[in-house]
Amino acid sequence: MGEHELGGLGGRLADLAAAERAALTREIDASGAFAADPRWREAFATVPRHLFVPYYYVSGAGGYERRWCESSDPRGRERWLRGAYEDVPLATRLRDGVLLSSSSQPSLMALMLAELHIEDGDRVLEIGAGTGYNAALLSYRLGDANVTTVDLDPEITESARRHLADAGYRPAVVTGDGARGVPERAPFDRIVATCTLASIPSAWTAQCAPGALVLAPLATGLIVLTVRDAGHAEGRFLHTPAFFVPLRGSDRPEPEPVGFAGVPHRARGSDLFRFLLTLTRGALAPQEAYALWEREGMPGRERYGITVDGGHAWAWLDAPEGPYAWPLPGASGSAPAQT
After folding, report:
1. Bridge partners of 191?
2. Phi/psi zone of residue 323: left (φ > 0), alpha (ψ -120 to 50 degrees), beta?
């Protein structure tokens, strides 16, 4: 389906798509997501999201409703088109009721792209191809040759490749384990993940150029690491919460459920406490995490960071050498300090 065709929907809906895309861009702008790099505004105003979600699923009382571009009902096609430009994540692949892939919330995508502080000529690796929409935004900004996207599922990479071609973009789309990066396309100046991690894969920093940035969802937050060299990186979390589908791969550990034993109800309902509990999973008992959270004034995500140093990787509060540090799952060795 090409932009000129809109899946055979006709001129009226083509006009509606343009209007809805402009409205979405204004909404993202008003949210402040473009603040770190306003140049992304043009990409969102240009790249047609509807071409990347020819169908998606909306949760309802009776399960999931499928909306798609070829509905026989004109009102159904209009609902599909309007929904494609809402500032919400869209479920795009389900298996036995389990979400496998989605198109992320556009304002969150915009914030993540802006926080990459991309410069012309940067080479970017995206972990998690999804629908291909994020790769299209990157390709619009940087050109196809500078963008690589990888996903473990060949069905996802094939559909992403098709959506990208329909929209006129042809970045490198690779089928493989994202935790292992794409060494044949390295070095990268930026790596951005659109799936939740338990730790930072060593392959990513090894495939980065010195000074590169890695931005990834971890523990319901977004960590931004500056890479010093193949074995060293450090950075802080952004203030915003973020929830993504977990990274899938042959050696990815399954996270243990977060427990609340001995934790007061007010902390259980706090997003910031749940972030700390998830970040320190396996290192702090829930009661210990709660005591720290209270003592330190219920810190926001931006007070936490991560350091990768050779075979060691740890999370910390306020400073890497401070009194509060915890090893990340899957990292060898231990944090230099732990509470």
Report:
1. 125, 214
2. alpha
306: left (phi over 0), alpha (psi -120 to 50) or beta: beta
The average confidence (pLDDT) of the chain is 89
pLDDT in tens, 317-326: 999 998 999 9
Distance CA 15, CA 115 (A): 32
- Helices assigned H by DSSP within the chain: 11-31, 40-46, 74-84, 106-115, 133-142, 154-167, 202-206, 265-268, 271-279, 286-295
Please answer whether residues 204 and 228 qualify as being in contact, where contact means their C-beta atoms are separated by less than 8 angstroms: no
At 10 the three-state DSSP class reads coil
Among residues 23, 213, 207, 223, the alpha carbon closest in space to that of 117 is found at 213
Query: Coil, strand, or helix at residue 188?
Result: strand
Handedness of CA 284, 280, 273, 305 (dihedral sign): positive
104 is catalytic: yes
**Adjacent-strand bridge partners of 306:** 235, 315
Which of 168, 195, 174, 198 lies closest to 186 in space, CA to CA? 174
Is a pLDDT exceeding 50 seen at residue 3? no
Residue 136 CA to residue 147 CA, distance in Å, equals 9
Give the residue-averaged pLDDT of 189-201: 93
pTM, to two decimals: 0.90
Residue of 102, 103, 104, 199 marked active site = 104
Question: Can you tell me which residue has the tokens 């009226």?
Answer: 12
Alpha-carbon span 290 to 284, nearest angstrom: 9
Strands (E), 82-129: 90-95, 98-103, 124-127
Cis peptide before 253 (omega within 30 of 0): no
Residue 8's SS3 state is helix
Q: How confident is the model over 154-176, as pLDDT tens digits? A: 999 999 999 999 999 999 999 99
Q: Among 306, 284, 310, which Cα is nearest to 295's? A: 284
Q: How far apart are CA 108 and CA 133, in angstroms?
A: 13
In degrees, to the nearest 5, what angle opens at C-alpha 267 toward C-alphas 262 and 268? 75
